[in-house]
Amino acid sequence: MKTFRIGGIHPKDNKFSAGKKIQIAELPKQVAIPLSHYIGTPSEAVVKKGDLVKVGQLIGKANGFISANVHSSVSGKVAKIDVQLDATGYKRTAVFIDVEGDEWLETIDRSPKIKRECLLSKDEIINKIKDAGIVGLGGATFPAHVKLSPPPGKKADLLIINASECEPYLTCDHQLMLEKGEEIMVGISILMKALEVNKAVIGIENNKKDAIAHLSELAKTFQGIEIVPLQSRYPQGGEKQLIDALIRRQVPSGRLPIEVGTVVQNVGTTYAAYNAVQKNKPMIERVMTVTGKNAPNPGNYLVRLGTYLSAVVEQAGGIPEGTGKIVGGGPMMGRSLMNLNVPMAKGSSGVLFIREEEAVRKPIKNCIRCTKCVSVCPMGLEPFLLMNQSERNMWTEMEANRTMDCIECGSCSYTCPSNRPLLDYIRYGKSTVGSIIRNRK
After folding, report:
1. pTM for this model (two decimals)
2. Which end of the chain is more exposed for a tag (fewer CB within 10 A), N or C?
3. How many Å apart are CA 325 and CA 112, to the nearest integer?
4. How many C-beta atoms surround the C-beta of residue 186 within 10 A?
């Protein structure tokens, strides 16, 4: 069975919420919708305190090519435009809206009927996705319209749909495929038309056999879409790893998938694109997983953007006793949350409760030169060396040793027998080197 060729690990799945139907999260009393919850330039507020807004109304206009529109996820009155801590602990400008009813823009088609036919041109499709503020929902949150607009001289010959969901615990994409499979397939056809390609491949790990069977059956009525089962292996959801697993093309260091003729979109992004193009529905909500070994009610929830995570956790049964850490996202690439008073963002894939005994860091020991971190690195880097250079502020050397290629998957830290915080130091060094490179340009 196919998988990528360099590095990788096999953490336990712990998919406790697998098969749990998507529940609609309760409408909050107030939302705080960040004007920057994606890669790129923050959007610019187009509403002010006291304005009345409807669900789907534009509240933040994209400010540049790599930027995304932001829309109101609720109806009500703008209480203020102020700063709000996000899941990363940084203060971001957000639009605070007091919820009054649930009035949607009349242009949004809310009927459950699936609309398969799309008569729009390539440019019209891309503009609709851009206007709707769709970004990558697999974690990177890169504006989708940018991926669909390759630079001059570059052309895709294949669309790859990332449905691997290799991160332990998370099941939101899996459940979305089971419940919204046909909409996803229509979305893939629309993205194929936007890219002017005749073939799409969906990569799904074999721990989701029901999703593989379901989409394989649906694919019989769609032209050019192939479902490829993959061996379960982390971090197969990384773009470069998925491309290698599916078609054996290697993306060069520092380059993007379009260099090898591919565009990769997450399965959740594809569903959002369907809603944008066929239903005129902007990016106002997403499915997220609330889970953990001691979670009272692990499940998948459809949550309006800007909803405080505390409200979602409360609906899921509250913080379980014995919780030592709460993580935004999965255990490998997620980040520890300072508290739950942070708003749901476009990239919020889950809330994970870590038990006290698992949340304690083990004592750090000296490196024993076992090279396990090297053997599991999916980018072919030397994590032990990058950590040492980061400790010593050796930024030039870190850049030369390709620290910017690190995808921050955490495989190195996971496998280290000396409990060394490899990823922590590499992240710090990567951030510093990235800043140096930007200033140089």
Report:
1. 0.96
2. C
3. 39
4. 24
DSSP E strand boundaries for 187-312: 200-205, 225-230, 262-266, 285-292, 299-304
* Residue 386 domain boundaries: 372-440
Say yes or no: 143 and 272 in one domain. yes
The β-bridge relationship of strands 58-61 and 44-45 is antiparallel
CATH number, domain containing residue 267: 3.40.50.11540
H or E element, residue 390: helix 383-391
- DSSP string computed for 142-198: -BHHHHTSPPTT---SEEEEE----SSS--HHHHHHHHSHHHHHHHHHHHHHHHT-S
As for how many domains the chain has, the answer is: 2
User: Is 137 within the bounds of a domain?
Assistant: yes
pLDDT tens across 114-165, in order? 999 999 999 999 999 999 999 999 877 899 999 999 999 999 999 999 999 9
Angle between helices 172-179 and 209-219 (to 10 degrees): 40
Phi, psi at residue 204, to the nearest 5°? -125, 130
What is the spatial distance between Cα 266 and Cα 165, in angstroms, rounded to a whole number?
Answer: 9
The pLDDT of residue 257 is 96
Rounded to the nearest angstrom, the gap between the alpha carbon of residue 397 and the centroid of all alpha carbons in its chain is 31
CA 192 to chain centre: 21
| 160 and 274, same domain (yes or no) | yes
One domain for residues 268 and 163: yes
| More confident call, 87 vs 308 | 308
Q: How far is CA 372 from the centre of its chain?
A: 28
Rounded Cα distance, 132 and 277, in Å: 9
Which residue's structure tokens are 């109806």?
75
